[in-house]
């Protein structure tokens, strides 16, 4: 019997829980399409968007008691009525609670929404998809999400704990959970994934209204691990680690982050910028050398070809990170043109001196396509 979904939960002794593809997946294919169990409009936009369908809200259709939830129609107001009756009192003071406890107000609002929805949720936790293939989750599925509270929660945990105590004071009894379980729920929201973080991400998450779609960024083989990236991967390692510790409370241990810095794609910006200047000098020297011996045997042309290749590679590595400083007389578009020109020059020289099948020429051609 074939698996109902394109993924399955697996476990690795060193890396913990992860997902693997149950069959081959093509680039762009939707691996999971799921309706969010709980959602709130960011505070900045909560008066502008409908709390149910996310369309433009009508200014005169809102909750008169808490004045924090707006709707586009009476139909949408009715759709949230049962849940909102339970959350309304807690939402009245949520801004003050967030300020006093130094907790993110939208995290508190989402916790309130989930706790209210949970009190009405009798689902058994089995994942089921509707006729359109959209999975509808239950609170039992939310409880199965991973968290890393035992790692580096720090002050974030203390603030969330204080916020959890305050919101529980204004929620009806059927919505209550022990404070520590609410803290765990906050951590699960913060991670919100069965999948592991990695810089060689295989998937991208996109929101289409209330539906979350997870699509493949490249072809994936059956049994291959499925990964997501939680942060911007095009910054240097120290910045990535700092952001993960601050926002997700763990260190990434994917292959790129685990490799020795000297053997990794990750190079400090100052070192990379210095390397570009060094290679630029090498290229200029090689050009001068060729001008002096333009009629000499092919070995001098090969020196120029390799200088072109080294220069192009250094530029490519630098251009991956848009925050790396460039010289005052250059801009990124100019550097990209120089990179492509050097790859092309390398390829052209190799075609004459080494023949078209040379593997380095294939690499240059691949970079030119990119």
Describe the structure.
The protein has helices at 74-92, 94-101, 105-118, 139-143, 149-152, 155-169, 179-191, 237-247, 255-258, 269-292, 298-320, 332-353, 359-369, and strands at residues 7-12, 16-21, 30-35, 128-129, 135-136, 196-197, 203-208, 211-216, 225-228. It has 370 residues and is α+β, with helices and mostly antiparallel strands. It has two domains: 7-258, SET domain (Beta-clip-like, Beta Complex); 267-369.
CATH topology of the largest domain: Beta-clip-like
Mean pLDDT: 78
CATH class of the largest domain: Mainly Beta
> How do the strands of the widest beta sheet line up side by side?
4-5-3-8-7
| Spans of at least 5 consecutive residues with low confidence | none
- Tell me the helix content: 40-55%
Shape: elongated
Number of helices: 13
**CATH architecture term of the largest domain:** Beta Complex
Radius of gyration: 27 Å
Write the CATH homologous superfamily of the largest domain: SET domain
Strand content: 5-15%
Major sheet: size, sense and barrel closure?
5 strands, mixed
**Count of strand segments:** 9
| Domains, number | 2
Question: What structural category characterises the helix and strand content?
Answer: alpha+beta
Report the order of strands and helices.
Answer: EEEHHHEEHHHHEEEEHHHHHH
Q: What is the straight-line distance between the termini?
A: 41 Å
């Amino acid at each position: 019997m074939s698996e109902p979904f394109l993924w399955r939960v697996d476990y690795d002794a060193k890396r913990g829980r992860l997902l693997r593809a149950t069959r081959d997946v093509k680039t762009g294919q939707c691996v999971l399409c799921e309706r969010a169990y709980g959602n709130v409009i960011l505070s900045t936009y909560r008066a502008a968007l409908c709390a149910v369908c996310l369309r433009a809200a009508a200014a005169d259709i809102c909750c008169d008691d808490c004045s924090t939830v707006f709707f586009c129609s009476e139909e949408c107001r009715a759709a949230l009525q049962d849940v909102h009756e339970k959350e309304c009192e807690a939402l009245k003071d949520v801004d003050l609670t967030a300020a006093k406890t130094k907790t993110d107000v939208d995290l508190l609002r989402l916790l309130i929404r989930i706790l209210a929805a949970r009190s009405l949720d009798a689902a058994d936790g089995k994942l089921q998809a509707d006729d359109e293939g959209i999975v509808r989750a239950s609170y039992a599925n939310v409880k199965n999400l991973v968290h890393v509270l035992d790692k580096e929660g720090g002050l974030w945990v203390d603030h969330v704990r204080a916020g959890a105590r305050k919101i529980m004071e204004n929620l009806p009894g059927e919505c209550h959970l022990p404070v520590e379980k609410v803290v765990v729920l906050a951590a699960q929201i913060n991670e919100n994934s069965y999948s592991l973080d990695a810089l060689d991400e295989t998937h991208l998450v996109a929101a289409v209204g209330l539906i979350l779609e997870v699509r493949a960024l490249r072809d994936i083989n059956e049994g291959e691990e499925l990964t997501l990236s939680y942060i911007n991967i095009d910054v240097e390692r120290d910045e990535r680690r700092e952001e993960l510790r601050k926002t997700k409370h763990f260190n990434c241990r994917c292959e790129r982050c685990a490799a020795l810095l000297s053997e990794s794609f990750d190079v400090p910006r100052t070192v990379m910028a210095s390397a570009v200047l060094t290679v630029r000098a090498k290229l200029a020297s090689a050009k001068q050398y060729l001008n002096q011996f333009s009629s000499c045997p092919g070995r001098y042309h090969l020196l120029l070809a390799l200088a072109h290749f080294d220069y192009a590679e250094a530029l490519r590595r630098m251009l991956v990170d848009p925050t790396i400083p460039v010289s005052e007389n250059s801009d990124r578009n100019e550097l990209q043109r120089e990179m492509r020109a050097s790859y092309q020059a390398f390829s052209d020289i190799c075609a004459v001196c080494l023949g078209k099948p040379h593997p380095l020429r294939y690499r240059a051609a691949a970079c030119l396509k990119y």
